[in-house]
Amino acid sequence: MKAILVNSVIRISSGIILIVLPALLILVFVLHFKHPADFFEFKRNYVPKSAAETVESLINQTPKPSIWHNPHMIAYLSMPLLIAMSLILGESLWRFQPGFALIGSVLMCVGTIFLAGLFATWSTLYDIRNLRPGQLLLICWTITRER
């Protein structure tokens, strides 16, 4: 009886994760636009900003966004759900192709850890304006020396 209850709880939790995670990632995508009409503004050519312009825009942003309005923080906090989803999908594939299920789950977990680091890095950039000029100069000098 307990095994049936545990199995049903796991299946319900798995279904919830498979619905909530894509919804969270869609929310992260939508939060990148200031206005819904910005989504439909297309440009033929992408012109990247220089590093100086990017740092200047991060320093001069007003008002400072809260942690919940930072899309990268929401994505970062949803990464455990991505690992859970990889294990759910691996478990469902295990009956048919155990080798592929293992390889796929391991690769997805490693990729999720990398992606979490990327989101964490972007989340810290919101606090760049709290640095003193000397600290910022040291960071920029360190980045250019590593190249």
Please give the radius of gyration in angstroms. 21 Å
Structure class: mainly alpha
- Which blocks of ≥5 consecutive residues have pLDDT under 50? none
Give the strand content. Answer: under 5%
**Distance separating the two termini:** 61 Å
Count of alpha/pi helices: 6
Q: What is the general shape? A: elongated
3D architecture notes:
The chain is mainly α. Helix content is 69%, strand content 0%. It has helices spanning 2-30, 51-59, 71-77, 79-94, 98-124, 133-145. α4 (79-94) runs antiparallel to α5 (98-124). The longest helix has 29 residues, at 2-30. The radius of gyration is 21 Å and the shape is elongated. The model has no long low-confidence stretch (mean pLDDT 80).
Features:
6 helices, mainly alpha, 69% helix, 147 residues
Task: Please outline the helices and strands.
Blueprint: H1 2-30, H2 51-59, H3 71-77, H4 79-94, H5 98-124, H6 133-145
Helix pairs in contact: 1-3, 1-4, 3-5, 4-5
Quick summary:
The protein is mainly alpha-helical. The protein has six helices and no strands. The termini are far apart.
